[in-house]
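During the reporting period, our protein records have gained a structure token line. A sample record is set out beneath this paragraph:
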Amino acid sequence: MIPDLGEEEAQAAADAIRSGWVAQGPRVARFETEFAAAVGGGHGVAVSSCTTGLHLALVLLGLGPGDEVIVPSLSFIATANAVRYVGATPVFADVELATGNLTVETIDAVRTGRTRAVIAVHQGGVPFDTVALRKAADDWGVALVEDAACAAGSMAYGRPAGAEAGIAAWSFHPRKLITTGEGGMVTVASADDATRLKRLREHGMNVSAADRHASKQPVIEAYLETAFNYRMTDIQAAVGLVQLGKLSALVKQRRQLAARYQSLLADINGLIAIRDPAYGQTNYQSFWVLLDGFPVGRDEVLAELARKGVSARRGIMAAHLEPAYADVTPGPLPVTERITRESLILPLHHKLTEADQDHITGVLRELATR
């Protein structure tokens, strides 16, 4: 992934620096409003990363020791780690093969009387079935947190993937479609929740630093609860505002490149390329292929691509297979383990050319004949 950063972002960052306001300030507030409007998320709260956003979401929900939170193992490890940050127990659920996402059935298979929440991931930008999972969570009486780290620009049922989510966390890491270097956002439906999240990200202060400094009268702030320093800077937000303006064009380009990949790969036996689910459209933040009877193993495919100058990488990790979770004994996760073992992610970015795609798929075509 190569971030689409240029002179406009550099100018916006420089303007923020020249303004003298480089910490959390007016640009952050504007970015929160505009991002939330773009994803239909209600109220935006900018934070330092999607990981800190997930942490704050679980703090907001009041989760702690004794509570179980169902998560996919097939996700970057931050999804599960956020559960441990609040002292709750992550419970790993399997995913479906076609999308890499949790389903009502895979969640229900591991749900217990101690389940308080589910963190469902829009994996690699592929939206999960928002209608089905939100209804199930309501029926079960558990909270649904949407890990939308990769989902800016994806659609589900004709709406942005995180639209109308009770709470969703987003990432602006450089591997995502739009970036602020590091950074994240939490979107929530409730204005009261947004107010508390803003307090939680800023040491529990009852008035933000920006509002305090803008006041013409001395303000004696109070610290209402033990909280965190998870703020975004105005320099980051300035870049984010420019990036947000590019989102639609970036999604359109990536979907065109993904469609071309799918066409080029269609007649290569043993490969299954990721596609849109029936209910939505992916932004193709990641374009992965699953080996399905391919004559060469995944690691050998990656090695051969590297020898031919192609920077592909392994598929999505499985957290339960990492040393950090060696103390966890999950139930069977056959689909998760297959995807993490037999998939790889192909290059897809704004500088990718048709010639690049021809070369990449040509290497795969050669390997398919071995």
